[in-house]
User: Fold this.
Amino acid sequence: MVDSLKQQAKTVRKEVLTMIHTAGSGHPGGSLSAADIMTALYFHELNIRPEEPKWDGRDRFVLSKGHVCPVLYTCLALRGYFDKEILGTLRREGSILQGHPDMKRCPGIDISTGSLGQGISTAAGMALRAKRDGLSYRVFVLVGDGEAQEGQVWEAVETASKYELDNLIIIVDNNGLQNDGPCDAVMPTRDLAEKFKAFGCNTYKMDGHNMEEIIDTLDTVRASDSRKPHCIVAKTVKGKGVSFMENIPSWHGMAPNDEEYARAIADIEEGF
Assistant:
């Protein structure tokens, strides 16, 4: 299973780069850093029905860092929510695949996102509804470490802790970079795992590019019987898998040209 997920993650990375290259715009850095986590969620962990996107019993997923939607769109297409050919329409006028996820256009999107800092709030609301209505679904939310500089993140975590939302799983894509440079230079995030723990979460750390570790961590979270929300801090590399993109802030939101695209695909295929 792990080997097939690793191969799937390579496919996801190539599709992400193809989408962004075709569109001539997009956010490759954070999409690539989240690719292994997203692959594990959509091809192993989430209880979902692509043929029934609005099934009420489904697990919910919130992409709080909505600008990395290419990786979400890719996973949705490969899971069968819509035709893979639609990936080539990213950011085009009239496309269901806009620059941020739009729940009114794209099947499989549980909430429209884009304004950073708001994702945990909406995810907590979904989780609270499940608790109050006696439903068994879980809610996963992917947050950026730069995004964790927003005060609303911490208000939402306090709320989740107060209401004992143990069906809420927060995953932090801790790649250390944001649009304007290193997170610690813009506004130090300090030890995110300790911060989430102090705000009432069960907290876990993992290598966000080690598929075995990702699966083991998700298994541990699923087996937990605590009455606390969960937070997984995943150490990742921005631009992971492409030699000239890794740890380079400028690739936060820049599309590769033809030559760069060819080099990037070669890096992924060769397992750089």
Remarks:
- The mean pLDDT is 97.
- The beta strands are 60-63, 139-144, 168-174, 177-178, 181-182, 202-207, 230-235.
- Residues 2-270 form a domain with the Rossmann fold fold (CATH 3.40.50.970).
- Residues 25 and 254 are 6 Å apart (CA to CA).
